[in-house]
Amino acid sequence: QSVLTQPPSVSGAPGQRVTISCTGSSSNIGAGYDVHWYQQLPGTAPKLLIYGNRNRPSGVPDRFSGSKSGTSASLAISGLQAEDEADYYCQSYDSSLSGPYWVFGGGTKLTVL
Amino acid sequence: EVQLVQSGAEVKKPGESLRISCKGSGYSFTNYWINWVRQMPGKGLEWMGIIDPRDSYTNYSPPFQGHVTISADKSISTAYLQWSSLKASDTAMYYCARLGGDYNSNVDYWGQGTLVTVSS
Questions:
Q1: Residue A1 pLDDT more than 80?
Q2: Binary contact (B61, A101; C-beta < 8 A)
Q3: Which of A53, A102, A108 to mutate to test the interface with B (most CBs of B within 10 A)?
Q4: pLDDT tens readout for residues A18-60
Q5: What secondary structure letter does DSSP report for B75?
Q6: Which terminus of chain A has fewer Cβ atoms in its 10 Å neighbourhood, N or C?
Q7: Is B113 on the interface with A (CB under 8 A)?
């Protein structure tokens, strides 16, 4: 069971908006650590999608946006396109153990209907 | 151009040892921590551990502590993930990934992955 909790799957029709939640605790997201999001297309390595809760690397369309509040974060994808069908993962730092420790969410599979 | 290039796919038997590698180029290797991440077939990403190539300081996620060893050779800009006795349950894709800054940072570059298959 992952330290960060994501829904296993979400779906939406082309053009629609979907959100993916990422719920943590007081030792990670709730402690003020940043949340980062990665997109993994089938058969490829993950790719950075959102960093520092809400920032997009160059080249990532503004259809992708991130937010954070309390012990949770969200990734929103608007204007869904077929090419968005992928797995999405959130990641944060966790201070519950001694030494540096990072955690991922369990991942969310986005299906474009 | 920053690149992390991992060694090729491996097929091993249970009980065998293995070391896979991750070579960094296009940046100062000692300035960035390297993570190792496991992805079992059809499953999500799992953070295994991290190394600071400057001094080879390491830290491991509890499920992996004692089962794998992370090391680095800064003279050749290469990080390693090593097993002394593989199990069938180690079958997975393994990624190395560069931490872009301090502990609060994201991973900014990923290796292409190394598929490890353990089967008798």
A1: no
A2: yes
A3: A102
A4: 999 999 999 999 999 999 999 999 999 999 999 999 999 999 9
A5: G
A6: N
A7: yes
